[in-house]
Amino acid sequence: MFGGGIKRNAEGKPVLTSDGFFIKEDNVNFGSVLPDYTGGVQNTFNFFKNFTLNVNIDFSYGGKFFSLSDHWGTFSGLTSKTAVLNDKGNSIRDRVRDGGGVHVVGVDTSGKAIDTYVEAQDYFHQFRSANISEVFIHDLTYVKLRELSFGYRLPVDKMGISRYIKNATISVIARNPWLIYSKTKDFDPSEISNVYGEDGQLPGTRSMGINLRIGF
After folding, report:
1. Rounded Cα gap, residues 204 and 200, in angstroms
2. In angstroms, what is the C-alpha Rg of the chain?
3. Dihedral of the CA atoms 125, 129, 131, 137 (nearest 10)?
4. What is the per-residue pLDDT across 150-196, written as a single tens digit (0 to 9) for each?
5. 68-75 vs 120-129: helix axis angle to the nearest 10?
6. 17-36 pLDDT tens trace
7. What pTM was estimated for this model as a whole?
8. How many C-beta atoms surround the C-beta of residue 114 within 10 A?
9. How many other CB atoms are found less than 10 A from the CB of residue 60?
10. 34 CB contacts (<8 Å, ≥6 apart)?
């Protein structure tokens, strides 16, 4: 995945304009959209003779994705990062002259240190106007409990229906009940629907259901 990044000097410090805005670096390699590893574990536990517990966990390690929701949400001031406190203990949405603003540290093109505050709206709007994608690139690493089911095998013999039904199991099933771990905190990377990333898609959903399986 390539895109507009933040220009940095040899020491890794961001290069800024005199006003404290980032300078764009073209065609930065953010990494592969493909995870390094993917896999899953499925276990079935039988206990008390007629009870069954099925656990399905899948995971992904490595890989990157671009989030359009983060891009536009940040631009519009809807994400949490646009409403935090700065190092002065004031809201970054307050005017710089009132102690607000985003604290920016870096160097100018000549290597001179810059330490300043930028109005929050100007700071977050710069990524759109300068086409800097770097801050909206996230990691695909996650571990998720994909499915959990708890079943009971009905005693068809005791129920007097074994002439007609050989076996019957009723189960309660939960799908996507728990995102156990995610390196990206604001999105569920297991639900990414496009190759390059999240494209303003709907949030992932959890579901509960009941299943009755009958064998004749």
Report:
1. 12
2. 26
3. 10
4. 999 988 888 877 777 888 899 999 999 999 999 988 888 998 877 77
5. 140
6. 999 999 999 999 999 999 99
7. 0.82
8. 17
9. 23
10. 63
93's tokens: 């949405």
Closest CA to 191 of 178, 181, 201: 201
Query: Token digits for 86?
Result: 């700065």
